[in-house]
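Memo to structure team: turn this sequence into structure tokens by end of day. - J.P.
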Amino acid sequence: MAVPPSLRRLILLLLVAGGGGATAAAFELEEATIDSIHCAFAAGELTSRGLVELYLRRIASVDPALHAVIELDPDGALAAADRADAATRIVPAAALPPLHGVPVLLKDNIASKGSLNATAGSLAMVGSSSARDAGVVERLRRAGAVVLGTSSLSEWCNFRGPGIPAGWSARGGQGTNPYVPSATPCSSSSGSAIAAAANLAAVTIGTETDGSIMCPSSYNSVVGIKPTVGLTSRAGVIIISPRMDTVGPITRTVADAVHVLEAIVGYDPRDAEATRIASHYVPDDGYRKFLNTDGLRGKRLGILKKDFFHFPSGSVQEKVFGQHFDIMSKMGAILVDNIEIPSMNVINDAVQSGERALMLAEFKLSLNSYLSELATSPVRSLSDIIDFNNKHPSQERMAEFGQEYLLRSEATNGIGPTEERAIAKLNKLCKRGLEKVMQDNQLDAIVAPGASAHSLLALGGYPAITVPAGYAANGVPFAICFGGLRGSEPKLIEIAHSFEQATKVRKPPSLQHSAIRTCNYGDESGHFFCSLYNFQL
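Reply from structure team:
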């Protein structure tokens, strides 16, 4: 994690002085929710500045072992927090914006105006700056959120090449699962999920092409909402595929994820086609009204047992999912068992489905367009990035990981006959697959374990909500996923919230396996001294 001199001074002051003041010291940071934060603000028990300082201290003490955070903007965050605190003193609580004073971490492929880089984990992008916020960041700020910094990810959103460990980037290092360090943090929004799980921010933002919100949410025991494509703007975001990419919240509760979702959806002229179509799905009075504890009642849920529920007999997962199905039935859900998706073997094969061919072409087009819009950047094309990697083989670990997908993407020439055939095949798989099955069986949602249905839900830009479901015998978290057709977020929120409140599975990680590094920061030259000790929260 890059730590500028201003942050060194701040962390030193916070660690020495205890940080946050008397009111912040009394606030329970672990598992804090948006509602608990706002209640503490209203009661005078906490300020936004105090909350930002608490999260900065926690990041300084915990993150060296987790690598969830790439970069922080303490000056900008504290200034925004001070503005929020000034508003708290003069504006009635009911009139404050929905994310007032709430610190958020952005995935490192989401641009923000100011000192933060958006690099997709690549050293080639260090020094780039955007003239304006990404569309979702503009909405977060309007909703009162405080941008704390950026979270780590799989480099280039896991699209640099095959075989690269999930959660690794040259800029951020290897992200660590906070529950079981030897387990995968999974997929490209890993840093956002790790940070949410380990209470390094109030809420976080991730992105998904095919599994990158669902999978890390599952493996890090947090809630992830993968919105319908176009529900949230991709303007100012480094994406792979306009067909599949979406921006969504990763949080500790369904309610918090819904608060964030409500703040970031809507039309954006910079992502006009997708957001115009999807804006018709947004309820006039928002999504929070669907946080219904009785939301499972009457819902028809298709259980994808044949395709995805493959667990050893007697395993924790087999037992726990059986219990969850019983709970959902008792709460009034109608379980339609053994639903099978046609051509699932093709859908799960990126080459056979045409997904890979389309992604390779779309990535080059999307990335070059993003780079052309930056105010400053050391690279202006995918070709420049490939050259940078070749010139910095040690830092980018080229001998181990290469850059196969980048090279194959660079060799494409836009959307031609090959890509058009891929699009036609994907459309056919969607219409004859999930859409037909849900319509024929009159389903409100499908149910799958963890992120197992990621490709099924990715190819058509369908939404999903992933909710903690349990912990395996070795302590690794696993989740349940509720997915649906485009625009079905209201039903999915009802189902997910009802399930979460009935089961209340999530527990914070103990982090007892992590060796946490504390640092005494030195002078402006950047010298500092660190010691290792076992740290348990």
